[in-house]
Amino acid sequence: MPIPLASGVKVAQADGAITVNGPKGTLSWTLPEPITVREENSTLFVERPSDIKAHKALHGLTRSLVANMVEGVTTGFTRVLTLHGIGYRAQVQGDRLVLNLGFSHEVAVVPPQGVTFAVETSSPNVDNQYRTARITIAGIDKELVGQVTAKIRALKKPEPYKGKGIRFEGEVVRRKAGKAGKAGKGKK
Questions:
Q1: Distance CA 105, CA 154 (A)
Q2: What's the domain count of the chain?
Q3: Residue from 93, 120, 125, 123 nearest 109 by CA
Q4: Would you say residue 21 lies in a domain?
Q5: Residue 85: alpha-carbon gap to chain centroid
Q6: Burial readout 2-16 (b: 16 or more C-beta within 10 A, e: otherwise)
Q7: Structural contact between residues 158 and 167, judged by C-beta atoms closer than 8 angstroms
Q8: pLDDT tens per residue across span 63-97
Q9: Are the beta carbons of 27 and 72 closer than 8 angstroms?
Q10: Host domain of residue 35
């Protein structure tokens, strides 16, 4: 599948590495040995030397990663986390993300270069119990954005009894019933 290049995107190859430069920044990656990338009429073509299984696998991997590089330097990538729980808060201080997650201390997350944080807090829910916060992680490198998102979620995964924790936006947490207790049992 060819990869179309948007206007303003330049691709350079040198010493087995490909560099993609666009309006949002520059990304580079070392190509695997038998795979080549050819540019023709503002379209990239990823080619393999033969149809053996290893070359097919590298071909698909290379095509996917180069397409992600092109998309990253033109539009960028974002992942959204939602914070659920009474007293759980998130705020951006400088470039750091500071989270209150029910621990005895605040947790500060320092982003790697090329990743930015934004926090949006909603109004309290119907019962006026807690606010939910949306944490947006953005950057041009899809792998790096996903890795930072997963590390933040791992700080407080959603638990199945009350649903408190950090979730991916749209994630459904399967809830469990709590203990049945002694209600309904007759005393003797």
A1: 16
A2: 2
A3: 93
A4: yes
A5: 22
A6: ebebeeebebeeeee
A7: yes
A8: 999 999 999 999 999 999 998 888 888 899 999 99
A9: yes
A10: 3-74
